[in-house]
Amino acid sequence: MSRRKSDKSGSAKDAPEQKVNLRELAEHLGLSVATVSLVMNRSPAAKSIPHHTQSRVRAAARELNYRPNVMARMLRQQRSFTIGVIVPEISEGYAALVLSGIEDHLLQEGYFYFVVSHRHRTDLIEEYPVLLQQRAVEGLILVDTPMRRGVSLPVVAVSGHKHVPGVTNISLNHSRAARLALDHLSSFGHRKIAFIKGQAFSSDTEVRWKAVAQEVGLSVDEKLTLQLESESPTPQPGYETTCKLLKSGAQFTAMFAFNDISALGAIRALREAGRQVPEEVSVIGFDDIQSAAYQNPGLTTIRQPLRQMGMTAAETLVRRINAPKNAEYPKSIVAEPELIVRGSTAVAS
């Protein structure tokens, strides 16, 4: 089926092809209009259609320049099929991995989404839920973002630790995470452990620190406990904090960092000070970001299933959106951590 116009000499021009409609696409494929519609609109019911058939439909749609009439679908069903996602910032690490899981599930379910980042500004944290509602989103996903009051839409919070009406919280089992990290260091004979706490604005900081304090069987030395201060999402805050610790002259054989990004900064500071990792100081991070395995040495860390947490957030939100009004919803979902041992930890010297 060709839709390309020809010039007077009969040769095809480079002008864009005309669009085909749904019925013409279905006739070209020898499939029913309903089948093609389910695939192109990414309907949940399309899961019953064989993958090779779905691929053939999408390939033909690209070839023939078919585009679904999204506006007609929205008007017909009186829905936007749009989700709002609010994150602190977008960079390598926590938010990017959670977002990848959110994106995978929403694309599969045929939802569009807006992503906004607030950079920890209180005014934006307050305004964004309102602005997104004005753009007709059907639900919100908050990533490491506090929810201070409820809204009229279904909300799922990743690393949400406050019980707010209408919000499903997805969080990590921080007690188990602390136990895994500290048992690992303890098994290597480490007793003088330095701790880098997260920034005050992070939703996980206090929860994780309380878990560490409860789980550690060793005395926590205040001189070996520091907190990240800068808002930068780079390794710089971890570098600066570790430099401060080294200048204090405090003695330690291991370090447990708030996240992998700060752990990378800490390792650089240790090396610049002539301290070998892991021969003199063992370092353990948190999150298991994609680059953690490719450091030299590879970073021992506590893996959060961040991508899976993002997928669970999207799946839970879509289920809540499609549920009857006032239906019960999960208030809390807990993910389990995993210790990933690489080369940045060793027996205490």
List the helices and strands and how they pair.
Blueprint: H1 22-29, H2 33-40, H3 51-64, H4 70-77, E1 82-87, H5 94-109, E2 112-117, H6 122-134, E3 139-143, E4 155-158, E5 167-172, H7 174-187, E6 193-197, H8 205-215, E7 225-227, H9 236-248, E8 254-256, H10 260-272, E9 282-287, E10 300-303, H11 306-322, E11 332-335, E12 338-340
Parallel strand pairs: 1-2, 1-3, 3-4, 4-5, 5-11, 6-7, 6-8, 8-9, 9-10
Antiparallel strand pairs: 10-12
Helix pairs in contact: 1-2, 1-3, 5-11, 7-8, 9-10
- Total number of distinct structural domains: 3
Portion in helices: 25-40%
Strand content: 15-25%
- What do the pLDDT scores average to? 87
Order of helices and strands: HHHHEHEHEEEHEHEHEHEEHEE
- What is the fold-level CATH name, i.e. the topology of the largest domain? Rossmann fold
